[in-house]
Amino acid sequence: MLQKVALGQKSLADYTHIASEGTIERIRALAEPLQGHRVLHVSATAFGGGVSEILYTIVPLMRDAGLDAHWRVIFGKEEFFNATKLLHNSLQGAEETLTDEQWALFDEVNALNAEDLHGDWDTIVIHDPQPIGLCRDAPQKSRNWIWRCHIDLSEPNPAPIARLQPLIEAYDASVWHMPTYVPSGMNGNGGVRIVPPAIDPLSPKNMAFSPEDAAFVCHQFGIDVDRPLITQVSRFDPWKDPIGVIDAYRGVTEEIPEVQLALVGSMATDDPEGREFFQHTVEYADGDPDIKILNNLNNVGAIEVNAFQSQSDVCVQKSIREGFGLTVTEALWKGRPTVAGNVGGIPLQIENGESGFLVDSPAECARRCVEILSDPELGKRLGRAGKEYTRRHFLSPRLLCDWMELLTELDS
Ligand code: UDP
To answer: What is the CATH number of the domain that holds 281?
Structure first.
């Protein structure tokens, strides 16, 4: 059964003072002809990762704007998620891809989910590749179909993208974070739209936390709040390079021995590889008491992520490949000086030297962290600039507005 995701309540009115001027009014105007529009979001998981993060805000806000919006999660057994993990990696360039049997399983699970898809929808939005076959397998279930891609498909392994491309092109529109993420072979097919993601400034993860409260929470996890802290929040995944972060931290300790590192990462339910990589990261940390490696099994939820980011003297996101990098947006929104990999959507968010630092290696990451830790004024300047840029470009009201425009366009 496709699982219905239970949604909280959000009110657009609460965002009036944070959103850029005119955004809420524009959303309300766009929402008028869309009252009662039945829109269904479908994703592979409701837990962990950027997709669920966004949907927990956008779907309730769509409802508050008067749309009949819902979110469901596909079902699939472990072998299916092993296959889609391979697919995810190969679409981002990894050589290993699905075997014929795995493709057969991929098609089979999509077909079963398509059969189970009930309702008569105005728009169905499919998120990421795992449920991409639903449009092919159940086209009659919705008037409009949108595929929302959250990953970078600019340099994919050619075999999986050749299989996916016809599926993408069957959609009325496909939505991408950046123009460069669209596979070159699409040649303008598939109704390409560019919409960067956004974070919810009022969610428990991003709402303003006092320094005292942040310190209180971090202290409970063994952080010495009087010593400097570097944090990376991300899934335990090779693309997020926690090993490189540990190398960078070791570089920093040579100049600033009292520094501490927190690696905070959840285990997504569709990410079996994550468990193995988590173990590898723990082994690499080699029992260093100043490296804290935490996950959701330690009860690290949104509030704790907020506390760690707010408390950090530097936030790091040393990704090697990155879809957009919501963790970067979150750190910038908290006014934290941020050092991040010069990949994917990260350069869209950070202007190197102005609103953070972009880096290409653990050594460079270490050097930038040392610079910030030794010069608090520099950290403040970067943090202020990063926060202001994020306010203007990457908060949820702007994203909701973009969605309403697309729904309106496809409906006319
Ligand atoms: N996240 C979290 N807890 C964790 C690890 C990640 O809440 O332990 C959240 C993180 O705060 C962010 C999202 O998951 O909101 C990750 O999105 P991002 O775009 O950075 O990466 P993705 O996981 O989608 O590749």
So the answer is: 3.40.50.2000
**pLDDT tens-digit series, residues 1-20:** 799 999 999 999 999 999 88
Residue 403 is part of which domain span?
Answer: 3-198+395-411
Residues 223 and 168 grouped into a single domain: no
**Token code pair at residue 148:** 């929302």
171 pLDDT more than 80: yes
Distance from first CA to last CA of the chain, Å, rounded?
33
For residue 20, the model assigns a pLDDT of: 84
Distance CA 89, CA 96 (A): 8
Contact between 148 and 125 (Cβ < 8 Å): yes
Same domain, 73 and 216: no
Q: How many domains does the chain have?
A: 2
Q: Confirm or reject: Cβ of 401 under 6 Å from ligand 1.
A: no
190/312 same-domain check: no
Q: Is 344 in the pocket of ligand 1 (CB under 6 A)?
A: no
d(CA 410, CA 173): 8
Query: 293 and 334: one domain?
Result: yes
Take residue 4 and report the two structure tokens written for it. 């219905």
Q: Is the shortest distance between the CB of 394 and ligand 1 below 6 Å?
A: no
- Rounded to the nearest angstrom, the distance between the alpha carbon of 173 and the centre of ligand 1 is 26
Q: Kindly state if the Cβ of 97 falls inside 6 Å of ligand 1.
A: no
DSSP letter for 230, please.
E
In tens, the pLDDT along 256-304 reads: 999 999 999 876 555 677 888 999 999 999 999 999 999 877 789 899 9
Q: In this structure, what token pair is assigned to residue 79? A: 């072998």
**pLDDT tens digit string along 23-66?**
999 999 999 999 999 999 999 999 877 899 899 999 999 999 99
Residue 152 lies in a domain: yes
Q: For 352-377, how does the pLDDT look when each residue is reduced to its tens digit (9 = 90+)?
A: 999 999 999 999 999 999 999 999 99
Do 138 and 58 fall within a single domain? yes
